[in-house]
Design brief:
The protein is mainly alpha-helical. Helix content is about 45%, strand content about 0%. It is globular and about 30 Å long.
């Protein structure tokens, strides 16, 4: 799915281990930098 959407400006895909707090913090920080926060989160 990510590859089919290309570099969509309204999409941030993150692969991380949800048991690793540092990875979670990094993903949240990336979303905050790109969008100013998180409105919707899809965990698949």
């Amino acid at each position: 799915l990510f590859r089919s959407l290309g570099d969509a400006p309204n999409l941030l895909a993150a692969r991380l281990d949800v048991t690793d707090r540092d990875q979670i913090a990094a993903a949240v920080a990336a979303a905050d930098r790109r969008f100013g926060g998180i409105d919707v989160l899809v965990n698949n």
